[in-house]
Amino acid sequence: MAPTWSLRIHRVGRPHGRSLFVVVALGQRSTGGYDIRIDSVVQFQRGSVTYVTATSPGQKCGTTSALSQPVDVIRLSPKVEPIVFQRRAVVRDCS
Prior knowledge:
Elements: E1 6-14, E2 17-25, E3 35-44, E4 47-57, E5 71-76, E6 83-92
Parallel strand pairs: 4-6
Antiparallel strand pairs: 1-2, 2-5, 3-4
């Protein structure tokens, strides 16, 4: 099953400047074994690319019987905008 993605950018004011928070989430899953991570952010002349990997368990993987909500958050300088996401889905092989 392909992961459902939720990608958000949040701007937060601070007393000495601003911060930009990038939040990636897979939403609620019925078992464990899922993961999402921000691999890197690369800045280019016209903006930035945020590379994200979502991992799901393969058919032969043992998983916990618990709800999970994989999420990753990073804080960036607001100078990296605009941001484009490059997504990659991986299925873990547990054979």
